[in-house]
TrEMBL record:
Family annotation (InterPro entries): ConA-like_dom_sf, DUF1349
Name of the molecule in the record: DUF1349 domain-containing protein
SUPFAM superfamilies referenced in this protein's UniProt entry, alphabetically: Concanavalin A-like lectins/glucanases
One Pfam family cited in the UniProt record for this chain: DUF1349
Amino acid sequence: MSRTGVEWSSGVWTHEPVSAVEQGGDLLVTAVEGSDAWRHTSYGFVHDSEHTLVRELPDAAAVEVAFTVGFEAQFDQAGVFLRVDDENWIKAGVEFADGSPQLGAVVTRGSSDWSVAPVPEWAGRVVTVRASRSGDAVTVRAAVEGEPFRLVRVAPLPPGAVVHAGPFCCAPTRAGLVVRFHEWAVTEPDGSLH
């Protein structure tokens, strides 16, 4: 499998955003205020209103999404989303929390978890997030323009599961978040964990 760009028009929204407009090859997505993806843990609520543009991701393949980190409100977020069903999914990317962009992932298997690490130097820059399916796992990596990919997470994912994946964004705390997505691609999965 070679690297293949995915047309924005080939995806289907899990939940429609306020708008999604193509501009010079990019996709500008305006998120609905209060949109989010989370299940139970610590907060006790279920949010299932993220804006994800998905298509099927085969076994032994990787999905990549590139976007500009232009976040300023608590929990503004974008990245890549892999969905099996309502209770089994992974989102990974950059989320604005506690005054800084944070690189992280949420893995949900009935209930959600969350891990983040601050990346304040990524503000205003283009970030690419890659999620690779291989065997019984998904390996998530991310890179900021001109730098090598770094490992974000290794998470379980049953082999043979039907997975739909693509770019996502959410705006849990405000209206007016616009995320500029630059690329959506499918490629070979990463060959190793490190």
